[in-house]
């Protein structure tokens, strides 16, 4: 049941699927969907029939690849690069780099490894300055782009390296 709730929340709050499209797929009126997506009506109080329709819609659109982050690997690569640049600014010079310590683990289990990297970085909050504040905002934006549905430990494909090196290049001058 929790999986269905998460799926419905993703469909209504995080996906880029319009209420019009959801209405066409489910038969639920746009005004009803607007109440849910704007938080006027609590999704926990929706009818069982609407919940089933929305969950089925989620599964259908996911199967058609309308939902989900098509660039999950790239986004995780960007996240890792941001963490690496972040670490190079706050860790002691003789300490490992994020890239050296975590690269292999990150490709296999990106979410769990990122949690560990994040913990390591947060131990250095006393060293945070303007650059680190910018990088923290980058973390927020990238994790938001990854979204709840794609933030997991599925192994990354080779495209993650493209995201990693592109982001490292983009962060060179901050």
From TrEMBL:
Q: Known Pfam families for this protein?
A: Cas_Csd1 (PF09709)
Entry superkingdom:
Bacteria
Q: What is this protein called?
A: XRE family transcriptional regulator
Species name for this entry?
Bacillus chungangensis
